[in-house]
Design a protein that fits this description.
This protein is of the alpha+beta class. 25% of the residues lie in helices and 43% in strands. It is built from two helices and six strands. A hairpin with a 2-residue loop joins strand 1 (53-61) and strand 2. It starts with 14 loop residues before the first helix and ends in a 5-residue tail after the last strand.
């Protein structure tokens, strides 16, 4: 007798498979959020940062510490020159979930600052580390803390 399929019977995945799928979905969403952060900064869409950070988030960079959306947006505007093209390459994300609604991430970045004219100086390249904390909200994952630590530079501009 051939095997038959009973479409009325529901098959539940074992809890460990569901948990694994949930974790993989969270990792994808967190990775996407960090990519959106890089895109907002590179394209100077500073107001777009409001969609990525919690309202009480803190950002610490060599340019200072900012807490809250308005301060974070203002700090980003101040620190990103309008006369240089900027491109961030974010890599080696280490994502650790803490329970259902918290996560921490460490990411390596290569950031290139280049002017495009023939007489412009040599591009400046920065290697840095982002240490990030995130919280799940009703709107999805949001950054609650970002600490940027420069590690090395090539062709650092004078001044």
């Amino acid at each position: 007798m051939p095997a038959t399929f009973d479409s009325t019977r529901q098959r539940a995945d074992p809890p460990d498979v569901r948990e694994l799928v949930d974790e993989l979905v969270d990792r994808a969403r967190i990775t996407d959020l960090i990519s959106r952060l890089a895109r907002c900064l590179d394209s100077r869409d500073f107001d777009g940062l409001r969609d990525l950070f919690s309202t009480d988030a803190t950002v610490t960079t060599p340019g200072g510490t900012a807490t809250g959306h308005d301060a974070i947006v203002e700090q980003a505007r101040r620190r990103h020159s309008v006369d240089a093209e900027i491109q961030r390459i974010v890599t080696n994300l280490l994502i650790d979930r803490h329970g259902h609604d918290r996560a921490v991430v460490r990411a390596n970045l290569l950031v290139s600052f280049a002017r495009t004219g023939p007489a412009d100086p040599t591009p400046f390249v920065l290697g840095e580390v982002y240490d990030l904390a995130l919280r799940r909200t009703r709107a999805g994952w949001r950054l609650t803390n970002l600490t940027s630590t420069p590690v090395w530079t090539i062709n650092r501009p004078a001044g």
